[in-house]
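FAQ: What does a ligand-bound record look like?

Like this one, built around protoporphyrin IX containing FE:
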Amino acid sequence: ERTPTGCPVSQRAADFDPFEDGYQQDPPEYVRWAREQEPIFWSPKLNYWVVTRYDDIKAIFRDNITFSPAIALEKITPTGEEANAVLASYGFALNRTLVNEDEPAHMPRRRALMHSFIPEELKHHEPMVRELAREYVDRFIDDGRADLVDQMLWEIPLTVALHFLGVPEEDMDTLRKYSIAHTVNTWGRPKPEEQVAVAHAVGNFWQYAGKVLDKMRENPEGGGWMQYGLRRQRELPEVVTDSYLHSMMMAGIVAAHETTANATANAMKLLLQHPDVWREVCEDPSLIPNAVEECLRHNGSVAAWRRIVTSDAQVGGVDLPAGSKLLIVTSSANHDEGHFADADLFDIRRDNASDHLTFGYGSHQCMGKNLARMEMQIFLEEFARRLPHMRLAPQKFSYVPNTSFRGPEHLWVEWDPNQNPERTQP
Ligand code: HEM
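The answer part, i.e. the structure of the complex:
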């Protein structure tokens, strides 16, 4: 087997399969061989070049003209005719948002829509996050056992995302139901028989998102990011287009929800797998902000992202012809010894932890990163204060097979409710 540039494909490159359990359980470990020996390799199973080192990935993020993000939301597993027909029957037309928009359209749009992410604006959401976190912990604190994902971490970031976007309360439950289908549709490998069901869910999600947007148009004075976009559209119709608004109404829910839910589940898993570190965090909550950063580095919720090469280029000495698709394994970059000393060590005092690439880098870097950080910090604070004695229950972790969005489907923890600080120190 040969690469598109005519070189032989190594056995490990030929075997690389990101839908396998090995990648799902631990992406940076799964590509350690590449990071160390063949940092950019061609994957015949995926038809992508796979990039694994920190400096190469940063160079790609820096140049969004040569390395376009246009394919960021493209289906990684092309679907069959039947599923495509189903999607078409719903008028599905998810197109450019921000994350997959090229210049010169992207930057003016990003600037036009940045206001909702400035620190003063994000502050409004803090009391709601805190209140939700307390309420959800109240529900299970006396049980001695909980699945933190099902009983808290999946739902709160979704509620926060819907509020952030400005979705009316009465539409929240329907949108909740549809959002997961989008992840499987975009980054997963649904079997042919699943594809049609996924297509129906995605089609419904698309139409419903359109209806919610129409409703917002009638009352664009609301406080959400979508209403802000609708108001900006009046001044800048060329920049904030209808297609953008409809696509973002759908993609925005996933961008804000699953990323943050997974990130918190990954963080709690990692902390509880290191009980000494968890104890330190509980004793000194001022360690939490950097601990969050180190969790995002060590075990982030976006494992890999995508770019397409627009003109012949070279990265790390490898020729990448125009049209090449790249899977840039940011989770591998985050474990690169060339950038992080003792990279596999989980060190909540690491001074360059925030150099991680889990939020991307450069002109497309995650706009919601500070909202995500705020949510994660509040969840950790509440757990540290109210359940410092919790520990991981014995379990095997499972993941939804896909290249990019990564977090355990369940996270079972247990504790002795008689030792709850609220009982022992009322
Ligand atoms: C872009 C990750 C939370 C909104 C991105 C990108 C990544 C990412 C990898 C692409 C970066 C690039 O191409 O350089 C994450 C992670 C999150 C998170 C790991 C949680 C831990 C959020 C939240 C929101 C959000 C809460 C919204 C409220 C966006 C937007 C973009 C983006 C709008 C597109 C920016 C652009 O292209 O200019 N995010 N995200 N994200 N994210 Fe996030």
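Follow-up question: can I read anything off the structure? Yes, for example: Residues 165 and 252 are 8 Å apart (CA to CA).
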